[in-house]
Amino acid sequence: MGDHLTLLLLSLPLLVNGIRFQEYLYFQVLSPGDIRYIFTATPAKDFGGVFSQRYDQIHLVPADPPEACGELNNGVFIQGQIALVERGGCSFQSKTRVIQENGGRAVIIADNASDNDSVYVEMIQDNAEGATYIPALFLLGRDGYMIQRSLEQHGLPWAIISIPVNVSSIPTFELKQPPWTFW
Questions:
Q1: Which of 7-11, 86-90, 136-140 comes out lowest in average pLDDT?
Q2: Rounded to whole angstroms, how far apart are CA atoms 77 and 145?
């Protein structure tokens, strides 16, 4: 019960005095080890689903092509996993639909500005046809770039992650955040 309540609370918007604050969801890269950090992402505002369970070890598979605006060359590897997609080329909702159609459990869309280490983009629906029900998250460009770069350096087709991570249950001294990002 506690884990499900935590997941629900992590996915709800935070309103204080009528002002909407940015909501965050956290995931941890387990492998490759050089990027074994806890990353921050923001859920789509008004489309996609929420995480109804925690995945302790699931593949984070970079989409091919990276923008995931049409047919994927590696859709078979995304089935049952989480896709890492690059921003650009089509709407956030269209990307989410492509990953959903390929059997992905969720999509993490990294900003295409690899130097972006602080500005989150609010992902909204585009009223295109077809519902999207898998979770869609926005990731800072620097984080996406560093994950992709590490995979390329190690010759790996995917990372292994845990998602979502309840950072309030982790002792502060164990919170390994990316050294290039400030929380």
A1: 7-11
A2: 20
Beta strands in 33-125 (DSSP E): 38-43, 55-62, 82-86, 106-110
CA dist., res. 27 & res. 6, Å (int): 14
Asked whether residue 120 is assigned to any structural domain, the reply reads yes
> Domains in the chain: how many in total?
1
Residue keyed to tokens 């941890």: 28
Predicted confidence (pLDDT) per residue in 167-182, tens digit: 888 777 677 888 877 6
Please answer whether residues 84 and 108 qualify as being in contact, where contact means their C-beta atoms are separated by less than 8 angstroms: yes
Residue 112 lies in a domain: yes
Determine, yes or no, domain membership for 63: yes
Q: Which domain holds residue 110?
A: 2-170
Asked, for residue 54, whether it belongs to a domain, the answer is yes
**Residues 146-172: b if buried by 16+ CB within 10 A, e if exposed:** bbbebbeeeeeebbbbbbbbebeeeee
Residue 18 belongs to domain with CATH number: 3.50.30.30
- Angle ∠(44,48,54) on CA atoms, nearest 5: 90
67 residue type, one letter: E
Q: How far apart are CA 6 and CA 46, in angstroms?
A: 20
The answer to whether residue 12 scores a pLDDT higher than 60 is no
